[in-house]
């Protein structure tokens, strides 16, 4: 009979240990597993927030750059006549002979309107280079889009004895543009 009494406490201990272990396993599965999933979700949210912060920083940086460029865009109300007078004044300061200036048709570019002029000039290479440099470095945004240059002495109707221009002077066709805000 002693054997029976000794076996029962061992069975009771084994059953108690099994219940304890199953309780621990079940508790860890039911209690800690949701926290593990929440931890993964929180890490994902943190990474998303970091991406958003980087994007916000880039947008702010672009905003600062845009403010610099917005100062270079001519104010509203300035149009083709303003552009014509500016480029003709710059050409006259460089002693460039302007034979014709034609306005181009304004082009709609969303928030902006692109305006341009087409100039035919006669000058030396040096004068033309200084003029283009002044146009490109003007405090407002001006762009020399196209330049076609031809030496005067290569033209069929050039007469070196009757012309007031030198044989090495150039005849240039220049397209100068800018953008303005829509009104």
What does this structure look like?
The chain is of the alpha+beta class. It is built from 3 helices and 5 strands. Strands 1, 2, 3, 4 and 5 form a 5-stranded antiparallel beta sheet that branches. A hairpin with a 2-residue loop joins strand 2 (107-109) and strand 3 (112-123). It is rod-shaped. The mean pLDDT is 81.
Write a concise keyword list for the protein shown above.
183 residues, alpha+beta
- What is the SS-derived class? alpha+beta
- Summarize the main sheet: 5 strands, antiparallel
Shape: rod-shaped
- Helix fraction by DSSP (H/I, runs of at least 4): 40-55%
How many strand units?
5
Low-confidence stretches: none
Topology (SSEs and partners):
Elements: H1 2-72, H2 80-93, E1 97-103, E2 107-109, E3 112-123, H3 125-136, E4 143-151, E5 170-181
Antiparallel strand pairs: 1-3, 2-3, 3-5, 4-5
Brief sketch in words of this structure:
By secondary structure, the chain is α+β, with helices and mostly antiparallel strands. The protein has three helices and five strands, in the order H-H-E-E-E-H-E-E.
């Amino acid at each position: 009979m002693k054997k029976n009494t000794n076996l029962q406490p061992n069975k009771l201990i084994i059953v108690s240990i099994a219940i304890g272990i199953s309780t621990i396993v079940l508790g860890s599965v039911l209690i800690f597993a949701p926290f593990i999933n929440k931890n993964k979700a929180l890490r994902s949210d943190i990474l998303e927030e970091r991406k958003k912060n980087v994007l916000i920083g880039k947008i702010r940086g672009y905003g600062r750059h845009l403010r610099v460029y917005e100062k270079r865009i001519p104010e509203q109300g300035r149009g083709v006549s303003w552009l014509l007078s500016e480029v003709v004044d710059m050409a006259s300061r460089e002693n460039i002979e302007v034979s014709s200036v034609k306005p181009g048709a304004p082009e709609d570019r969303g928030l902006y309107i692109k305006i341009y002029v087409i100039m035919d000039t006669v000058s030396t290479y040096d004068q033309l280079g200084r003029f283009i440099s002044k146009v490109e470095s003007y405090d407002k945004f001006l762009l020399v889009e196209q330049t076609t240059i031809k030496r005067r002495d290569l033209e069929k109707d050039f007469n070196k004895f009757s012309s007031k221009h030198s044989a090495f002077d150039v005849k240039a066709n220049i397209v100068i543009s800018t953008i303005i805000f829509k009104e």
